[in-house]
Design goal:
By secondary structure, this protein is an alpha/beta fold. It is 42% helix and 18% strand. The protein has a 7-stranded parallel sheet with strand order 3-2-1-4-5-6-10, sandwiched between helices. Strand 1, helix 1 and strand 2 form a beta-alpha-beta unit. Helix 2 crosses helix 4. The protein is globular, with a radius of gyration of 20 Å. The termini are far apart.
């Protein structure tokens, strides 16, 4: 049985990817988390790891001896990146270098997938939509800049050391369990709180005119699993739906799933310092390499995310009563 190692599995994507690799690819799955983080995955071996300590990575890789590595560990919030750029650079750039250096010291060559972001493209011009992997990068925030740097570092290691490293630029992925610092989860949480009488029937939102490429997290991890098998070393692949929805459209869909009458108000704190009007991925390279296409409709993802928040709020209220 082949072994997969997911670095940074305590975040939103980790458990979904572990499930995909175990159930649909029959792999023995190992995952890492930071010491102090809580993580239980029934079908995975959980390890503590700080990627800013290179020797910890080396020791764990020699213990596990994975056939493939998925590097998910990151400071992934754009908002946090504005407030703490030093931490973001340390985790996203220095941490990536330590991981790749540790892999380089192994006596064999596991395949490595570095997870980047569609944010790397930054200020996409309208004539560039949908954006391809060859498009010029114009990062518009600190998080995006660090992910663009990670991508370049991965490409350099693949070429300079003949390592089997490939990169993805993942666009907005959504689904049950996502933190409410992200727009879709935030909307669903607010609706569920209003339904439960925990919030006045007013939703606070940011820029509703922006268009973004949303993909269900389960489709995203399926793409990762296929790319680790079929992707080419040194190459970068967009992972998205290939279609951009206006945030207003997404909000309207979520509101249609609730019987509550809700007023919409703009919250200046939710407006980013820099925002791009349209972000849409060209996914033809991914389709060609892995035969992948998204399968889960947006409305299904929104319904399940809303139901997840309803269940969480009901559980919280039951524990408090």
């Amino acid at each position: 049985m082949k072994k997969a190692f997911i670095i940074g599995a305590a975040g939103f994507v980790g458990s979904y990817l572990a499930k995909e690799l175990r159930e649909n690819h029959g792999m023995e799955v190992h995952v890492s988390k930071l010491p102090g983080e809580q993580l239980k995955i029934a079908y995975a071996h959980v390890h503590d790891l700080n990627i800013l300590q290179k020797q910890e990575i080396v020791s764990l890789l020699y213990e596990i001896r994975p056939d493939c590595i998925f590097h998910l560990a990151a400071q992934s919030s754009v908002g946090v990146a504005w407030k703490n750029p030093g931490l973001t650079a340390d985790v996203n750039v220095k941490g990536c270098i330590y991981v790749l250096d540790a892999v380089r010291e192994l006596f064999y060559k596991p395949k490595v997938l570095l997870v980047g972001s569609g944010e790397e493209y930054g200020r996409i011009r309208l004539e560039e939509v949908p954006v391809t992997e060859e498009n010029h990068l114009r990062p518009g925030n600190i998080y995006a800049a660090t992910k663009a740097c990670q991508n370049m570092i991965g490409s350099i290691y693949a070429q300079a050391y003949d390592m089997d490293v490939l990169m993805v630029r993942a666009f907005n992925h959504i689904g049950p369990g996502q933190a409410p610092i992200f727009v879709v989860s935030d909307f669903c949480r607010q609706v569920a709180q209003i339904e439960a009488g925990m919030q006045k029937p007013v939703m606070y939102v940011g820029n509703l005119a922006a268009k973004r490429d949303f993909t269900d997290v389960r489709d995203v991890v399926r793409a990762y699993a296929l790319l680790i098998r079929h992707g080419k070393a040194g190459e970068t692949y967009n992972v998205g739906s290939g279609y951009a929805y206006a945030i207003r459209e997404v909000l309207d869909l979520i509101l249609s799933l609730s019987a509550a009458k809700i007023q919409i108000k703009t919250d200046p704190n939710k407006i980013r310092p820099v925002d791009v009007p349209v972000v849409e991925a060209d996914i033809s390279k991914l389709r060609q390499a892995a035969g992948w296409s998204p399968q889960i409709p947006l409305v299904q993802t929104l319904q399940e995310t809303l139901e997840d928040w309803r269940a969480k709020i009901n559980d919280d209220r039951s524990r408090q009563s």
